[in-house]
Amino acid sequence: MAAKTSEWRPGPTVCRCCLSEGCYKDISTEYFWMGKREVYSEMLSDTFDLSISYSKSGGPNSASRLICEPCIGRLRDAAEFKRQVQECEKTFVQCLDPVTALADMQVTLELEKEVKVEMVKEEKMRLSDDDDYGAHDYGDDDDDYDDLDDQPLTKLASKIPKKEDVDVLDLLDNAKVTEKRKSSTKVKGQPSKKSKCKQTAGSSKQQKPEPKKKKATEPVSSIQKAKRNAELVLQYSTAYPFRIRGKDMLCVYCHEEITDPNEYRTHVDDYHKAFTVSTAFAHCASGKEFLKVDITDLKCRVCSTPCDTLEDMAAHIRDMHGVLQIDMESDIRMHPYRLFSDKWLCALCDKKYASLIQLCRHTSSHYHKYNCDVCGRMYLTNEALKYHVRCSHSGGHTCRKCWTDFPTLEMKREHLKASKACWPFCCILCGERFVSGERRQTHLTEVHGQERRVYDCPDCELVFKSRRPFYNHYTLVHSDNSYKCPYCHLKFSTKKQMEEHTFSHTGKKPFTCNVCSKTFSRRKNLQQHSWIHSENKRFVCEICDKQFAQKVSLNGHMKSYHPEIASNDTF
């Protein structure tokens, strides 16, 4: 990693292992990855005898102990390699002298049983206060809280992670069975020792047979099968995994940002010929994300056979190369893309989109399985569906950041104006929050010196300063994703706009004011009308301080009562 310059300063999202920006996982928090528990501070201590300390300066970032996804992948590999060496050493020693090794295991078992009882008692005494503190802080409805990704994980981290109870007898029984399989072909020249080892192993099985039965009946979830399929397909094929950041493709191995898909594929081929599969899936550890892969040049790494789809590749490596761990009845936890330099086409339905972000949103819609019973919208995960229901169908006016309920929409808007922590857009360089993406872009340009982003249409020479006009232009002019009115064939960029337009042909007015029962054909007209009933008026006459709910009313007032000013100014 390149050395940081003297201008670098520790920020709120800096990795403590490589000083990279943008990480969000806390070192002392308990996570679960592929069904296994992980506490990165414990893994650092056990593997390298290292500890990440808190700063004694007391500054704003002194309590930051975060770690990035690439460092987590390297740490997993190191911990796995250490475990592998220890198991191989144990197996090797047992093959040389199985009687002595088994006696040592039994002595260790007795000691660990005694130590385990004392540590469990001590752990319960030590964590009782922390558990009460956690309950008071976060309440009892943590299972219903769906917005954890928007909160800094340092707030949720516990200084003393919870310990998992491990059955030592169960681990030893499994180790004996594994070692017996490995050493069965190596001990043929020592029949006497082999028979003794069999008898001892048999006695230990009679002492504790239940854990083996429990392990054998444990089901493997469909998500775990789909993850395993994805890992094997990535290992045996030339699929190019990537993430997106803005308009760029982000390398899952080194986090380099590349705009052109051809350059990205060249970058992966040149710099990541040897890769770690777990590193590519590190950002999918929560189980909420699918791995995005470019399958433009999908081939088998073993025999270079080309395949059109991920399913074809999975069937090929299973049938032709004997990778029997692949479950063809389960999904593959990947989203396929075919990326070109001059166009963004869906690999599943050939629809055309203006940007990579729009293409990613559309591609994920092919895998939506969770349906909202109220409005019919579909979502990729159950967590996303629950979040949608809580935000859109709870019946109140709720802030999506702090989950505070407000009796009126005006009070919620006033809260959003005053509460900066609830603003939705955040600067990734300094952490400052903004009400809109346009203000964040202005901040990046003026404060951090970034070039002002513009949107070039890839199919014509038009250039747009903001995103929404560019997307509307591309949808209406250069794609087949627009919606046509069945009466006048006018095109609209969204289905909602088209449906509201059709009310002008049918005469329907489905939007009703809750105060005066007046009806409107468009939701926007109802929203403008609702300001009439509000105590707060948005438009104020600067001369007589009279307030108006709509700008057109202010303009009429100026022409009637202040014509000398209205003739000089345009309202």
TrEMBL record:
<feature type="domain" description="C2H2-type">
    <location>
        <begin position="511"/>
        <end position="538"/>
    </location>
</feature>
<dbReference type="Pfam" id="PF13912">
    <property type="entry name" value="zf-C2H2_6"/>
</dbReference>
<feature type="binding site">
    <location>
        <position position="18"/>
    </location>
    <ligand>
        <name>Zn(2+)</name>
    </ligand>
</feature>
<keyword id="KW-0863">Zinc-finger</keyword>
<feature type="domain" description="C2H2-type">
    <location>
        <begin position="370"/>
        <end position="398"/>
    </location>
</feature>
<dbReference type="Pfam" id="PF00096">
    <property type="entry name" value="zf-C2H2"/>
</dbReference>
<feature type="compositionally biased region" description="Basic and acidic residues">
    <location>
        <begin position="128"/>
        <end position="138"/>
    </location>
</feature>
<dbReference type="GO" id="GO:0008270">
    <property type="term" value="F:zinc ion binding"/>
</dbReference>
<dbReference type="GO" id="GO:0005634">
    <property type="term" value="C:nucleus"/>
</dbReference>
<feature type="domain" description="C2H2-type">
    <location>
        <begin position="455"/>
        <end position="483"/>
    </location>
</feature>
<dbReference type="InterPro" id="IPR013087">
    <property type="entry name" value="Znf_C2H2_type"/>
</dbReference>
<keyword id="KW-0479">Metal-binding</keyword>
<dbReference type="Pfam" id="PF07776">
    <property type="entry name" value="zf-AD"/>
</dbReference>
<feature type="binding site">
    <location>
        <position position="71"/>
    </location>
    <ligand>
        <name>Zn(2+)</name>
    </ligand>
</feature>
<feature type="binding site">
    <location>
        <position position="15"/>
    </location>
    <ligand>
        <name>Zn(2+)</name>
    </ligand>
</feature>
<feature type="region of interest" description="Disordered">
    <location>
        <begin position="179"/>
        <end position="224"/>
    </location>
</feature>
<feature type="domain" description="C2H2-type">
    <location>
        <begin position="539"/>
        <end position="562"/>
    </location>
</feature>
<feature type="binding site">
    <location>
        <position position="68"/>
    </location>
    <ligand>
        <name>Zn(2+)</name>
    </ligand>
</feature>
<keyword id="KW-0862">Zinc</keyword>
<dbReference type="InterPro" id="IPR036236">
    <property type="entry name" value="Znf_C2H2_sf"/>
</dbReference>
<feature type="region of interest" description="Disordered">
    <location>
        <begin position="128"/>
        <end position="150"/>
    </location>
</feature>
<feature type="domain" description="ZAD">
    <location>
        <begin position="13"/>
        <end position="95"/>
    </location>
</feature>
<protein>
    <submittedName>
        <fullName>GDNF-inducible zinc finger protein 1 isoform X17</fullName>
    </submittedName>
</protein>
<keyword id="KW-0677">Repeat</keyword>
<dbReference type="InterPro" id="IPR012934">
    <property type="entry name" value="Znf_AD"/>
</dbReference>
<feature type="compositionally biased region" description="Acidic residues">
    <location>
        <begin position="139"/>
        <end position="150"/>
    </location>
</feature>
<feature type="domain" description="C2H2-type">
    <location>
        <begin position="483"/>
        <end position="510"/>
    </location>
</feature>
<feature type="domain" description="C2H2-type">
    <location>
        <begin position="425"/>
        <end position="453"/>
    </location>
</feature>
